[in-house]
Amino acid sequence: MMNKVLPKIALGAWSWGAGAAGGDQVFGNHLFERDLQPVFEKAMEWGLTLWDTAAVYGEGSSERILGSFVKGICREDVIISTKFTPQVASNSETAMQDMLNGSKERLNTDVIDVYWIHNPMNVERWTLDLIPLAKSGQIKSIGVSNHNLEEIKRANEILATEGLKISAVQNHFSLLHRSSERAGILDYCKENGISFYAYMVLEQGALTSRYNKEQPFPVGTGRGDSYNPHLAEIEDLVAELKKVGEKHNASPAQIAIAWAITKGTLPIIGVTKVKQVEEAAAATQITLSPEEVSRLEKLGDKTGVQTLREWEKEM
Question: What confidence tier does 260 reach under pLDDT thresholds 50, 70, 90?
Answer without folding.
Answer: very high
